[in-house]
Amino acid sequence: MTTALNTMQPARLAIFIALALAGVSSTLYASETFNTELVELDNPGMGKADLSAFESGSQAPGTYHVDIILDDRLLETRDIRFMAVKDANGSETLQPCLSIGQLKAWGVKTALFPQLDAAEGECADLRAIPQASADFQFGAQRLAISIPQAAIDLPARGYVPPDMWDEGITAAMLNYSLSGANSRARSGAGTRSDSQYANLRPGINVDPWRLRNYTTWSRDASGQDKWDNVYTLMQRAIIPLQAQLTLGDSSAPADVFDSMPFRGVQLASDDDMLPDSLKGYAPVVRGIARTNAQVVVRQNGYQIYQSYVAPGAFEIADMYPTGGAGDLDVTIVEADGSEQHFTLPYASLPVLQREGRLKYALTAGQYRSYNRSEEKTPFGQLTGIYGLPHGITLYGGVQGADKYQSAALGMGKNMGDLGAVSADVTQGWSTPEHTAKTSGQSWRARYSKNFITTGTNFSIAGYRYSTRGYYGMQDVLGSYGDSSALQDRRRNRAELTMSQTLGDNLGALTLSAAREDYWNDGKSMASWSVGYSNYWHNISYGLTWTYSKNVRSASENRKSQKNADHDQLLSFNVSIPLDKFLPQTWANYGMNASSNNGTTHNVGLNGVALENRALSWNVQQGYGTEGVGNTGNVNADYKGTYGEVTAGYGYDKNSERLNYGLQGGILAHADGITLSQPLGETSVLIKAPGAYYVDIRNQPGVRTDFRGYTVVSNLSVYRKNDLTLDPETMPDDVELEINTRTVTPTRGAVVRADYLPKSGRRVLMTLTDNDRAVPFGAVVTLVGDESGSFIVGDRGQVYLTGMREQGTLVATWGSQSSQQCRADFTLPNHSTYGGIADMRATCRQER
To answer: Which of 132, 154, 176 is the last residue of a domain?
Structure first.
């Protein structure tokens, strides 16, 4: 289009610019203004826009999604309503409308300033607080609030006020995990077998109440089916007490006494309600498999996890919470049928508490054993841990049942540079079945220290059952109905865990050791493990040596050819990135040498692929001595919108195995049913209708479904969690003004994060009337949808989003009726570039 500016002669143009600049400079000393004549050179006939609102840098009043900064501390991100207010100089600025409740939540001592004079929900007058101010930094979408420190009761770092905690929506859910394996013989030594396993975890949320169940099913190679109800419970948070109320099946905490499974009621402190700065766990299972092996984890007799691993070192960090404590019994079933067993302590014991902090648990119910032959004896338990001044913590508790009573008392001390130590004693009085009443004591001591200067971190725990007459409550109650419950009574147990960094680029050493013996028949066990790990130019490598010794009891010796099992295992592994040749791919090698089972070597490739790293895979080939021969396996794991699928194939000289798995979650809510990856303890429902197949940042494989819904799990409870929709994966016909929401869920909640996508086409429209462009800065709205507005740019062009196929636009550039026009439009059938339609429309002025 030819403009008036193009047709002006240079001399006349120079004179015009000089006069315009003179007009601007004449007002420089009064205020910062802009001569709107300069933007009307293209269309002098349509008048000029009223840009006074922009001359002082202000913006339109309304609600904005802003970061709230109080005295240089980020408090939260939320919607705040802003109003136009004149300052002392008569200039208009946007000021926030903040309620007294919001100021209280941010730590402002509102009671000291009655002049704030605002009822709940109305705008408080910040001028009532001397030297307080609020600055809306529009470009950064930040609200910077400055309040004198004397007027603020600073909360602990990480503190989130309870009134911001979200109990979530009413919802029903089902978590499922299905897995199986089909094996067949490759030689006369092999056998054919099929096995399947499933766990189902249904639940219902209503207001603060959470109903949960955990049921497992398994079918072994002989075709025998087995169902287990691991637990059924109802739980809710008691926020004023910073505690959780549990009704049903659970386990008493293991911080004073050994964990005790029960069916009944429990009120126990929930440390997660405290901010991180005031706080004082599913464990990671690590081991080494000699062959393509099956790993089974049991807790309190229940099978809670099953997986398949390749030869070499493995790590399991994705077990579901089981609602209680108790040591984990880990079984590694090798391809040749041999088994490895070890026990992993489930509960670390952070006994030390801050001064004035009381941690407690009150439990009453029936003893609940996985062995149905054992009696369901009623019992009660009370424990308490209290922080005293000078780094001292006192703790203790009592247990009581018809055939058992005990009392415990202990003390912990933070000794500064010398570390932390705790010691306690438990006195027990018990009457096991077919045994006379007896009593005894159990002594326990623990120590931990992190030497920052040397990079040394170790903790040691020693347990000594000092008299033969001491029994734990679970031993005694379990003896009624199960005569074997008293066979394995520990007398001594010692554990050591230590790590040592070796300086820059020199790696780290780890050491762990455990030894325990029993009162009956001289049974004992011991294990040692020493490891070294390092990396060089992104190449990681490690070396691990383990030693284990199990001395059988006299009764077990009669069933075996030898009285002890000894084994030493040396493992080496190295992983090399292949980014220069294959992106996100690593080559790896592993060697395992066993004193009893020969040596195996494995070499392979592993990596991740697809968008958002949704697919992980590995291929491995190996060889072993002692008759093992060639082995191999290939595995893949795909995390998608509607769930997770795993598959693998492995072989050795005797057999080959195909294993498979499917896991995911189903969530029923007011807006329908949403399928997802496995649900965690706490989840958020993403609701973005119309924003279909949009990725969720930092969540591999998670994207919205065909309706714009999905579920994100594993949130931090009582903490702020930011959830961001990736705008790069947004459909062309969808716009999202705010793509990040912040939620603060309570434990077990299903919270909803509402996004407001604007569905419709994107249009670059030129608005003219008789070749005269709509003025620069005019505000355009869509008739029937005044929720959003658009600003006209140069030459009457305006960028519009969320547009329907036809409608009417209203452009306004002043307060007079003659300073607006209406444009009827019908969008073209096809977009011209990048999903954006380019068109012209006639905007007729009101007469």
So the answer is: 154
